[in-house]
Amino acid sequence: MSLEYNHIPVMLEKVNHILTPYKPGLYIDCTFGGGGYSKKILQSKNTQVLALDRDISVRPLAQKIKSQYEDRFEFSHSKFSNLSEVLDKSSFKNKNPVAVIFDLGLSSFQIDNPERGFSYKLNGKLSMEMGINNLNAEKIINNFSEEYLKNLFQIFGEDKDAKLIAKLIVQKREQELIKTTEDLSKIIMRAKIYKNKKFQKDICAKVFQSIRMVVNQEFSEIFKGLSSAIEKLSIDGKIIVVTFHSIEDRLVKKIFDLLSNTNKNSSRYIPKKSNDTEQILKLDKKKFFIADDSEVKNNSRSRSAKLRYATKHHNFSNNLFNESTVFKKYFDLENLAYAN
Ligand SMILES: C[S@@+](CC[C@H](N)C(=O)[O-])C[C@H]1O[C@@H](n2cnc3c(N)ncnc32)[C@H](O)[C@@H]1O
């Protein structure tokens, strides 16, 4: 099956609705994937798209789109944490985008490929790398301390059985290396059976999610990517983010609230802005949107999607943010993993 047809874009109609009428100018698709959003935007005349993806496997699809749209489209094999540098080196370098879009997480063709190791439902090697990584799941599971694993499953996975799962992993790896997604799933299941947990089909999901987040430094990626996007966005430009689980959604919500002054306590966590009365972002009255029943019926992946968007009102300097926030424990986990 071709890449193009293997991922159904989530909440595409809502994205389209927010962007309509399409202003002429540059749109940045930070998570190109199967190209669903990029293609939709390019259908409107006078639009240009700069698309990023850290997964090199999407390059052939990007080349196909390039051959159709030529100088209206450019692809960069990059992480969106490098958005500013990517834009500055692109042929659109002097433009401020009219919209920047993040559709977070994984494409279906990444999840469904057992070799990538993202799915606990498919047996494959313990990789979980989206691309441009220095770490993989096998290294974390076989080398990191029991304490680290427990914290990881607790903090990024919010799994109540984190302690026992970490203990069983360490016991198992003392006998032999844990190499496959099936090896890991079996250990998680043992812990759940021991704790008399009812069997649910997503019983391993939280632990897998937590490992994937650290392997790909997803939390800092979102933080840096959103900060750069808001800085680069033109006044009246739109920032749109689709999230798939509560941890990433909480981070997006916090940044949006802070920059729209809707959360009065934010300044406790993030250094004060130069002018605290300035509303950098304006949010939609409805805070977030979810997929409607017919979309969920047609695409089960959209079930957990939440879309938030905002309009930029004032300029924003990225260096006003730092990582010493209420989210410190998440950044610490990622930083520790990469320091090892
Ligand atoms: C949910 S898919 C996007 C699907 C796309 N909107 C579509 O309609 O086909 C997410 C994509 O973002 C990419 N991605 C995730 N995190 C990234 C990051 N930090 N930098 C660049 N690409 C990233 C993944 O490799 C994946 O291909």
What attributes does this structure have?
disordered N terminus, DNA polymerase, domain 1, binds S-adenosylmethionine, 340 residues, alpha/beta, Rossmann fold, 14 helices, globular
The portion of residues forming beta strands comes to: 5-15%
Described by the principal axes of the CA atoms, the overall outline is globular
Q: CATH topology of the largest domain, what is it called?
A: Rossmann fold
Per DSSP E runs of 2 or more residues, the count of β-strands stands at 8
Q: How many strands, what sense, and barrel or not for the largest sheet? A: 8 strands, mixed
Task: Kindly name the structural category.
Answer: alpha/beta
Count of helix runs: 14
**Number of separate domains:** 2
Low-confidence stretches: 1-5
CATH class categorisation of the largest domain: Alpha Beta
Q: Write the CATH architecture name of the largest domain.
A: 3-Layer(aba) Sandwich
> How many angstroms separate the termini?
39 Å
CATH superfamily of the largest domain: Vaccinia Virus protein VP39
Compute the average pLDDT.
Answer: 92
Radius of gyration: 20 Å
Q: Which small molecules are bound?
A: S-adenosylmethionine
Percent helix among the residues? 40-55%
What pattern of helices and strands is seen along the backbone? HEHEHEHEHHHHHHHEHEEHEH
